[in-house]
């Protein structure tokens, strides 16, 4: 079997939620002898056994793509010259992808049919699903701008009308029942029915470690002490993650960690306020590489907020030091793993406004870390599966959320859903029972003309 993955970016040098999923799927397939190809705009380097085909125009920052996308975001798409240039770039991308897929049986496209980051690439792939009849196409839908309120005014404008492209030749996959219900109840033009649900997963063993390399992260980078309360937000820096709420909770939480002390005297004539423990916030992900301008503005806003609230020194942005897996150069650690950050954390805090899945909740349970998260449907779905967590409403005042964390800390109760994670979200289980079944059904049940030498 020959399987290709197409995305704007590819692991391991580019990291995010989708890249992590692609990486796990690819490594799983390699173990079964599947020939894997990555087709991407930026990144790569996951495994030497993977064939990598870089098409720079697939990335949103490419000099041919960015000007077109800027006009699309501003709805300036009626100009004849724009359409001519758009088609020219789209056809270049299309031809390059077509060549890259010449020897491929199944092509898995993550998110590119539902997101607005590179419309020439999106339309090129949509067209190829109809033209390349020897290939089975899988559209793996983690997210969609069609589901977001702020994009509704765009959806009647070309090429936004080309999102959620549908064809009998495309197999659709999404990651939660919540997403499946969202896609299946959209207006007819964008509605997608008959979607398989294949959740994201983790390798549990990655989150059960505290070795010398983890301790080096603690010593050299984050400067935390064992008595500190360490909050972890293992997420990208993008507005829908609502990191500002996490910063406000941090500021409020610090206020609770004050103890009135009388210096051991019976009378309290001398009263001092002392920190019971320092509170630290670790954020592992980079600014969103698909929304460069917005991401940069957002990170500056967060820095200013942290300074205004007096918590700037308590926040660590770790994306320069963290990759999904550890990286070494010349025998020395170059980047730590996300699992190292989990090992140092006391509590995982997720404040997202909107998500498609909720992988940090699964990771936190695997790492045996307590979870505090916003009450949104995907998180509720995961917690209903038997993983323990503490939920709060997005409208709750930060001081209320902080008090709940403070009380939990004092009670010293560690709740986790470790066993349920093993049952539901182990990559091995998910990929063997669901992912492989999907690929085999495509190969053996047919999409167009199939050769007879598939294995």
CATH architecture of the largest domain: 3-Layer(aba) Sandwich
For CATH, the homologous superfamily of the largest domain is named as: Glycogen Phosphorylase B
* Strand line-up across the major sheet: 3-2-1-4-5-6-7
**DSSP summary: helix tally:** 14
Helicity, in percent?
25-40%
- The biggest beta sheet, please? 7 strands, parallel
Q: Calculate Rg over CA atoms.
A: 24 Å
Straight-line N-to-C gap? 6 Å
CATH class of the largest domain: Alpha Beta
Description:
By secondary structure, the chain is of the alpha/beta class. It has helices spanning 17-31, 66-73, 80-100, 119-131, 177-184, 212-222, 243-256, 292-308, 338-344, 359-366, 377-384, 398-411, 418-424, 427-445, and strands at 2-10, 35-43, 51-54, 106-110, 136-141, 170-174, 196-197, 229-233, 258-261, 272-275, 279-283, 315-317, 322-323, 327-329, 332-337, 347-350, 371-374, 390-392. It folds into 2 domains: 2-201 and 426-445, Glycogen Phosphorylase B (Rossmann fold), CATH 3.40.50.2000; 204-424, Glycogen Phosphorylase B (Rossmann fold), CATH 3.40.50. It has a 7-stranded parallel beta sheet with strand order 3-2-1-4-5-6-7. Strands 12-11-8-16-17-18 form a 6-stranded parallel beta sheet, sandwiched between helices. A 3-stranded mixed beta sheet has the order 13-15-14. It is globular. 45% of the residues are buried.
């Amino acid at each position: 079997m020959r399987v290709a993955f197409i995305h704007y970016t590819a692991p391991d040098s580019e990291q995010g939620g989708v890249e992590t999923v692609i990486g796990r799927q690819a490594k799983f397939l390699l173990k079964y002898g599947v020939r894997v190809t990555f087709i991407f705009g930026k990144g790569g380097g996951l495994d030497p056994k993977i064939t990598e085909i870089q098409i720079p125009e697939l990335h949103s920052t490419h000099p041919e793509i960015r000007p077109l996308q800027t006009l699309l975001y501003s709805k300036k798409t009626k100009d004849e010259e724009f359409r001519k240039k758009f088609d020219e770039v789209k056809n270049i991308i299309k031809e390059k992808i077509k060549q890259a897929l010449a020897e491929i049986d199944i092509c898995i496209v993550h998110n590119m049919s539902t997101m607005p980051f590179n419309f020439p690439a999106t339309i090129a792939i949509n067209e190829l699903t109809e033209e390349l009849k020897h290939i089975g196409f899988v559209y793996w839908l983690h997210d969609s701008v069609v589901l977001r309120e702020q994009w509704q005014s765009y959806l009647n404008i070309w090429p936004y009308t080309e999102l959620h492209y549908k064809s009998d030749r495309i197999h659709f996959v999404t990651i939660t029942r919540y997403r499946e219900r969202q896609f299946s109840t959209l207006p007819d033009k964008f509605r997608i029915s008959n979607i398989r649900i294949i959740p994201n997963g983790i390798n549990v063993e990655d989150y059960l470690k505290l070795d010398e390399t983890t301790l080096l992260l603690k010593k050299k980078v984050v400067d935390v002490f064992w008595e500190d309360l360490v909050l972890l937000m293992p997420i990208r820096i993008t507005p829908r993650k609502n990191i500002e709420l996490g910063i406000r909770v941090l500021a409020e939480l610090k206020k609770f960690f004050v103890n009135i002390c009388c210096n051991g005297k019976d009378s309290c004539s001398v009263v001092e306020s002392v920190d019971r423990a320092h509170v630290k916030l670790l954020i592992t992900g980079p600014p969103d590489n698909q929304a460069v301008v917005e991401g940069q503005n957002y990170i500056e806003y967060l820095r200013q907020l942290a300074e205004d609230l007096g918590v700037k020194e308590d926040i660590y942005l770790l994306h320069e030091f963290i990759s999904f897996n550890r990286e070494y150069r010349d025998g020395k650690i170059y980047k730590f793993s996300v699992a190292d950050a989990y090992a140092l954390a006391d509590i995982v805090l997720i404040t997202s406004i909107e998500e498609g899945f909720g992988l940090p909740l699964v990771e936190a349970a695997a790492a045996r870390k307590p979870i505090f998260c916003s009450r949104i449907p995907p998180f509720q779905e995961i917690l209903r599966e038997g993983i323990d967590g503490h939920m709060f409403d997005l409208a709750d005042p930060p001081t209320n959320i902080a008090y709940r964390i403070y009380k939990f800390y004092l009670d010293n109760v560690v709740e986790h859903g470790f066993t349920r994670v093993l049952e539901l979200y182990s990559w091995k289980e998910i990929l063997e029972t669901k992912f492989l079944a999907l690929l085999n059904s495509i190969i053996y049940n047919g999409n167009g003309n199939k050769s007879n030498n598939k294995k």
